[in-house]
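Quick note —
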Amino acid sequence: MSPPAIIAPSILSADFAALGQACSDTIDQGASWLHIDIMDGHFVPNMTFGAPVVTKIRPHVKRPTTAHGVGTFDCHMMSAEPKKWVKDFQKAGCDLYCFHYEAAISSTAAENPADQSESKTSPKEMIRYVHEQRMLAGIAIKPDTPVDVLWDILDNPTQEEVPDMVLVMTVHPGFGGQKFMASELPKVTALRQRYPNLHIEVDGGLSEATIDQAADAGANVIVAGSAVFGAKDPADVIAKLRDAVEKRR
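Predicted structure written out below.
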């Protein structure tokens, strides 16, 4: 049996004028996690917000009492230099730091925003570093990245360097409201077949219209933005997304 359903609404679609209340309301409506999209204007051609916003919304949502528990802040780091921001987001209240594979293979080992480094980091080094900062570690792949680049990382016998979650993007990262790319679901299926206990997240275009495809493929962590925050009854949408996953476990 695969892990339980986790519904993680993306606050990129929330009301920014009342963001703290929107976060607490969403958890009260049945959400498991909050998905927090961090875009730096370099790795993706858009900018959102940084650690100070996470700091401000953290008091509105109780911290999870267990790993992967309700209230997890799932920070999706669309950043060209992901290692530089680990400490800041840990201090801000991040629980799961999900960086992009594509960034980790081309970025530096600098550990603070103002630092420079000639040394390079790597996905395994990033995962270890995130764990050292007492957070869960996630690794994300873009649509253009083949899933088999993750096998060596996931098969690593050194547990400190193995991610707690894999995120398969079902849109090109950078903007909300894009059309769901079913072409990415074979990656989810391949991951689920090889790693039945892995938390597998999908992000992009998820709604009541597309959840069955994602659940059939084996995803258990569902990111939905406008489908939840734009709904007349967000609690009903969250419940339907959860039910679709649970029925296929």
